[in-house]
Amino acid sequence: MHGYAKPDRHGRLEMKLTLLTTPIALLIVTLGSTFVFILVSQSSRSTRHPDSMSRSFILWLHGLGDSGPANEPIKSLFTSAEFRNTKWAFPSAPNKPVTCNYGATMPSWFDILEIPVTADSPKDESSVLKAVQNVHALIDKEITSGTDPKNVFLCGFSQGGALTLASVLLYPKTLGGGAVFSGWVPINTSMMEQFPPDAKKTPILWSHGMADQTVLFEAGQAGPPFLEKAGVSCEFKAYPGLGHSINNLELQYLESWIKTRLQSSS
Predict the structure, then answer these.
(1) Rounded mean pLDDT, 19-24
(2) I need a labelling partner for 11 at 20 to 30 A (CA). Which of 91, 101, 230, 245 fits?
(3) What confidence tens digit (pLDDT) does each residue in 125-153 have?
(4) How far apart are CA 31 and CA 214, in angstroms?
(5) Model pLDDT for residues 190-203, shown as the tens digit of each residue
(6) What b/e readout covers 209-224, taking b as 16+ CB neighbours within 10 angstroms?
């Protein structure tokens, strides 16, 4: 989280992409500078008594070139009483060479072959599947500690959103939900046969800015048909004028979306 987004010369609220110049004058693009527009602080509200809520877990996966700690302010927006028993995790990706950035090393969950990401961009499934294993280990640890799988939620922005999608679809249990922000489908249709039956029951929320020039809106639009073919429920929300970033409206909706799916203790 680096500050507030400002309108560009076209009047759109967009994330400012971080551009780093290499010694040979090549531009390196990061997809992870997630600006959040905190318009007003939300008052606590609850439809269920907080003591009746079981423990829940929200895992947030950042974008390319970003870090987990930089995204931690997101949890401050989740002020409803239902989240008093929520454990948040904001892991950081390891430093790896990234093909789309001319092999430069930066925080990256898996390799990205080209930018902008389109609906037809090539996929490096092997590196995606390695990243999925690491995410599954974090989920397994939390479930082993006593959290109901249906109270586990994965959320991610950009590259983290793509990893969220793959991790949910390949996890052997039904989770509370997966939320993809400005992401894309990082695996091929041939992988569908490997989706466990219980994974297909995990609902997906997909949010995408229509003015995104980094992960094109068409890449986001390709998500619902892919999921429908796999038999997975997906709610797709388009945000006119929004570039490659997350805005306050998206996070407010995410809060309510998760609230309706949290399981009460019996």
Answers:
(1) 32
(2) 101
(3) 999 999 999 999 999 999 999 999 999 99
(4) 7
(5) 999 999 999 999 99
(6) bebbebbbbebbebbb
pTM above 0.90, yes or no: no
Q: Which of 158, 182, 207, 245 is the catalytic position?
A: 158
Q: Which of 56, 167, 208, 212 is catalytic?
A: 212
Name the residue ranges covered by the structural domains of the chain: 56-260
DSSP 3-state of 172: coil
Q: Minimal CA–CA distance to 61: which of 205, 166, 158?
A: 158
Q: Check: CB of residue 202 under 8 Å from CB of residue 232.
A: yes
Contact 18, 33 (CB under 8 A): yes
Q: What's the confidence (pLDDT) of residue 265?
A: 60
Check if 244 is active-site: yes
Give CA–CA dist 221/207, Å, rounded: 10
